[in-house]
Amino acid sequence: LVTGFEFMEGEDSRLFNRVSGISKETPQTAESILAAFDFQQRGETLDSLGAFTFDGTMYMKQSGLHGTLSILVDTSGRFLTESDFGKSFWFRMNAMGDEGTMDASFIEPQELDSNQLKIVRNSTPLAWAGNWPTQCSAIRFLQEEEFEGKAVWTLLLDYGDDPAKTIAIDQKTGDVLVVRSKNAIPEIGGFLPYKLVYRDFKEIDGVRVPTKITAQDDMTGASESTFATVETGIEATDEAFKIEPRERPTPWIAGSVKQ
Predict the structure, then answer these.
(1) Which of 11, 51, 121, 245 shows a CA-CA span of 20 to 30 A to 163?
(2) End-to-end CA distance of the chain
(3) Mind listing the pLDDT tens digit for each residue in 203-246?
(4) pLDDT tens digits, residue range 13-45?
(5) Helix (H, G, I), strand (E, B), or coil: what is residue 150?
(6) What does the buried/exposed string (b/e) look like for 81-112 if buried means 16 or more CB atoms within 10 Å of the residue's CB?
């Protein structure tokens, strides 16, 4: 490690110090960062609140479509999302235990595999609201930087056989603002990188949750979900997370419309 050099000319010399101006504070570690926020308490509070509902809108930037979005989710892994884009299409997805279903207006219902279930659960508004460090096999501090004007710590999270995640944590609140990773996509025979950005956090019944989420990957482009209302304490049975049958529109076939 070169920390500086000395320039000599005759009897004169000048010392150039490369590390001058760098903070002499003790370097951050993942342990010290996690200790600054009581994630265990956050997890206990989150678990005590039952199911959450998030209602708002979704904007798909690639297609320019706007629609409604409703999410029912809890910390036990149960999840139901319903989005409706009017005459364009509707889309629903649920997860309970090791099972899940995807249902859309343009295809028959399909079961979600284990990779798809992980993708669903990792993208919910509650994914980073509780004691998320307990899910990691290792956590490493990478650097300090800024994100949208906020000082953040960037951490690398290891999950054993699953892809690692790089996250940015707000230094003041402990909110996870950015998540970068990749999902296994068997259909393409590889992995698809993605990025999640969480904004506009609100504290609801002692838990900080994002009310705006931007998701982006190279396959579907970017989508932005904005939640106008968030409710907690929902006593939801398994029945509430099931997808109810819905009539599909008749497929349009060229030349089928009579003049």
Answers:
(1) 51
(2) 80
(3) 999 999 999 999 999 888 999 999 999 999 999 999 999 998 88
(4) 444 444 433 344 556 899 999 999 999 999 999
(5) strand
(6) bbbebeeebbbbbbbbeeebbbbebeeeeeeb
